[in-house]
Amino acid sequence: MPSKNGGVARPSSEARGKRMSRVREIAGSSGGFPIPDPQSWPAEIRAWLRDIKHGADSGSVAIFHDGQNARVYCEDAVLALALFNVNPSQWDVESGFPVFTFDPARIDAYRQQLAAYGFQVQIFDLASDVQESRQTRARAEVVDITTARARLEQKAKGAIL
Question: Model-level pTM greater than 0.85?
């Protein structure tokens, strides 16, 4: 929905209301997909997702990928169920909350679709985070505690003299 200024037009509040109504309708019927009661979703995952999204409202969707798989969790997974063609093999609730796992090659198409519906999409590349963590650990200096204590003792003796 391009606007006159070339950007993406945001749906009206009426359109957003209809969209959320449709999401609730699909989530309610869920087409045979199990959806645990959101009240029963573990508090830890809800808090983690809220922190990741920086407290953003329901107009924000977080997509995570590790290079091999992409995932959305909790309410974002339910939204994906409402908007995308989800295969039962991509749906998981064994941890007590919904998880939609999909091919990372679909991230851009899903991001565009979500943006067209007025959602802000945050994409988290877990593979690069892991790689950066490995690189940081590889660069970290290994210090022998015995040598470090000896150096501190020498410095202390030098300061006294």
Answer: no
